[in-house]
C-alpha cells in the first residue's frame, strides 16, 4: 500500500465521508436507571422487613431461607418492571447517560445503606 492509497481525514472532502447515524441512548439509560431502582428496592424491602413484623412475615416465602427470599424476589420484580417501563418510555429518545448514571449511583448507595444492619435495626420494633 502506497502513501497515495492511504486515507487522510484532514484532506478528505466532507461529501466523501460517511457517518453512521447516532443511535438513541434511551435503552441504555433505561437499563442504568432500572439497576439503581432495583438496588434501592432491595434496601427498602430490607428496612421494611425489619420495621414491621407483618411485612417480615409476608416476605417469608420459604422457611429455609426466611424473609430474604421475599426481599430479593420482590427487588428483582421491581427491577424488571422498572426496566420494562423505562425502556418503553426511553426507547426512541436521546437521553443523557451521565445524568442517569449519577441518579443510579445515588439509588445504589441508598439501597446499600438500607441493607446495613446498623441502619435497618434503627427501625426494629422493640
Write out key terms for the chains shown.
126 residues, mainly alpha
Give an account of the 3D structure.
With 126 residues, this protein is mostly helical. The protein has a domain at 33-119. It is built from five helices and no strands. The chain has helices at 26-51, 53-59, 67-90, 97-114, 117-120. The longest helix has 26 residues, at 26-51. The chain is elongated, with a radius of gyration of 23 Å.
Chain-wise SSE layout:
Layout: H1 26-51, H2 53-59, H3 67-90, H4 97-114, H5 117-120
Helix pairs in contact: 1-2, 1-3, 1-4, 2-3
Helix content: 55-70%
The Cα radius of gyration reads 23 Å
The number of helices is 5
Please, what is the average pLDDT?
86
Structural class: mainly alpha
The biggest sheet, with number of strands, parallel, antiparallel or mixed sense and barrel status, is:
none
Shape: elongated
**SSE string, helices as H and strands as E:** HHHHH
Low-confidence stretches: none
